Structures are given as C-alpha cells and as structure tokens.
Amino acid sequence: MTRHVLVLGGARSGKTAFAEQLAIRSGTRPAYLATAEALDAEMRDRVESHKAGRAARFTTIEEPLALPETLLRAAADHDVILVDCLTLWITNLLVANEDVALAVSELGATLVQLKTSKVILVSNEVGLGIVPDNAMARTFRDLAGAAHQRLAEICDDVHFIVAGLPMTLKGEAPVQSEVRIHEA
Predict the structure, then answer these.
(1) What CA–CA distance (Å, rounded) separates 127 from 133?
(2) Cβ atoms 38, 44 nearer than 8 A
(3) Which residue in the list 50, 148, 159, 182 is annotated as catalytic?
(4) Residue ranges of domains in the chain, CATH in brackets
(5) How far apart are CA 65 and CA 107, in angstroms?
(6) Most exposed of 24, 30, 37, 115 (fewest Cβ within 10 Å)?
(7) CB 170 within 8 A of CB 152
(8) pLDDT one-digit tens code per residue, 148-174
(9) What per-residue string of b and e applies to 117-136 under the rule 16 or more CB within 10 Å gives b?
C-alpha cells in the first residue's frame, strides 16, 4: 500500500529537507512538483538555487494551479512525488480567483485514487501566530488550516517539523538515523 505523507512546519523549519530525504528513501524515480511562481528577481534566484540543489536527485515539474491533474500525470513515470508547497498553491488559487475548497477536495480525491505513487505534501503551518489584521490574510489562514485538516485525514503519515526536528503526529515515525535535516 502506498502511504501518502503530509509534512507541516513553519518557515525555514527543515520541512522541505525532511520531505526530500523521505522521498529519496521511498522511491527510485522521485519527482519534485513545485508550485512556486517566480514573480520577482529574488524569487527567481531562490527557485534556480533550489532546482540546482536537487537536479541530480529529482525530476522537477512546475505547476502552480492544476495540482491534482499534474499528480496523476506524474504518477505514470514516478514512484514518489514530493509537492512543495501547498500554501503557495493555495496562494496561487486565491490570486487566480479559484475555489480553494473545491481544489482541496479534488486534491483529496486524487490522493485517495492514487495507489501507484507515494505523494509527500509539504506545507507551511500558518495558524500558530497572531490573528492576521486583514480579511485576505485571515481567509488565507483559514483556508490553509482547513486544507491541512482535510489532507491530514487522508494521509497515512503526518509530521510536524520544528527547529529541524520531526514530530510524528500520525502514522509511522521515520528512523532518525535515516533522515537528516539540513537546509541552506
């Protein structure tokens, strides 16, 4: 049985490095499905740096909106697919005036359907801070929180990363010696 994974954490917590190690251990044909859009020079530099750092280990697929469809296509060629990250995907959907709740529902249905490839979802936990001072930020926080709850129900394993340390909230804990977290 394919075990889907949700990896949550704050900014620069080590969640992506943790997810990358899980992906490398989980399959022989890993894909990295990136949802970021490089809309300015700083973001373009970040994207290029990340691509270069994982080029030898992952096939990179870039898709800011059509995540469920892209997962299904990627599963034809890859036994593990790392999605980084859901909060950027939600942002992209909001900016495009898409129905986020419907998109999350479609993603959930896709995960249930997808049995041939392991999917590792990375997302920023944004609900631990102060209540945002504007309606758009509160909507984003609420949508992200609802998405995390729904996907945590579906995923077999859920990990929360704090200061580079994984805490297993649901499912199987990885063997610590096998997963080394270190982000640049």
Answers:
(1) 13
(2) yes
(3) 50
(4) 5-169 (3.40.50.300)
(5) 11
(6) 115
(7) yes
(8) 999 999 999 999 999 999 999 999 888
(9) bbbbbbbbbbeeeeeeeeee
